[in-house]
Amino acid sequence: MKIIVENSTWNNLGDGFYQFSLYELIKNVFPEADVYFGDGPVERAFHPNQKQLKNALKSIEWQNADLHILSGPMVMALLKTEYKAAIENIKRKGSNYAILSCSCSGLDGEPLNQIRKFLKAYPPIAFASRDPETYEKFKDYVPNAYNGICTAFLVNKLLKVDTLKLDKEYFVSSFYRNPEPKFISDKAKPQIEDVTLKERKGYIPGLPWKINRHLEIYDDIAENLGDLKIVRTVQQVSNKSNNFNFKYPNSYITLNPINFLSAFKGANFTISERVHACAVTLAFGKPARILIDSPRCGIFERFDLDHTSNDRIMKPSTVFFNKIDTEMDLLAKYIRESCEALL
């Protein structure tokens, strides 16, 4: 059996966290299969305009396997990208596809109904959500739906990741949609609960953030908090503006998601508005503070992590690590049993 696992849309390196883990999980579930990396949609990775898109070779529509595996928040964009054409091609050829570790990210209303209809017309052989909301919204519209997990939580179980070590201990700060807050503590080497946050408005208060974020490089931003270095992981990779990429001291940017993970593995803790930055930090055994309230935070609910209280600070525990083991085994069993007819 030939299997293609989508693993390419790394303009957001968080995609690589769950895609690489899912790829390794699939190899473990199907040791007898030939498992390959596959491309995702051009739109998802590069966001071309319509004129540019006409010149793109949409390789996802030409990939050929017995089983194609898609993942991530792609459900909400199913009818807007060439996922639709790719799935239609897969079913037309008599092949199968699975949607695993997926999210609809708050999808509702008529767009939700349209995607439900599409999935009923072109049903996946397996459908595993990564948050309870997605499962509840699609369990009655796809066969054999499973209330699964985000495979980003499996990075420390399935991937070989080095540990970043610097000249001093550090914590990770990762922000994209809002200015990084000012970090304050009276401790020489603060723990995550010792850090107070003060809101920043950007370099020029009142200016829209989409402009202000490119001017932050001119602001005076601290490199350290007490004896801790502040490492700023730049997850939304783009070469359009290095003023954005390197706007803060100790900005860490790379095109390799596995290398990127090493920063979270070596950190004392993470403070971020990125759900996957916090997820992998927890998976590496460190506390994390998530500063957004979004349907995407549902990935924490699957592990009984409270992301709403205690200043939104989450800490890993023995129970958490045991649940990772249990949920990984259950997901693997579900995938194997769902695809048993292909073996």
TrEMBL record:
One of its GO terms (molecular function) is transferase activity. Keywords: Transferase. Residues 12-290 form the Polysaccharide pyruvyl transferase domain. It comes from the Bacteria. Pfam families: PS_pyruv_trans. This is Polysaccharide pyruvyl transferase family protein. It comes from Leeuwenhoekiella parthenopeia.
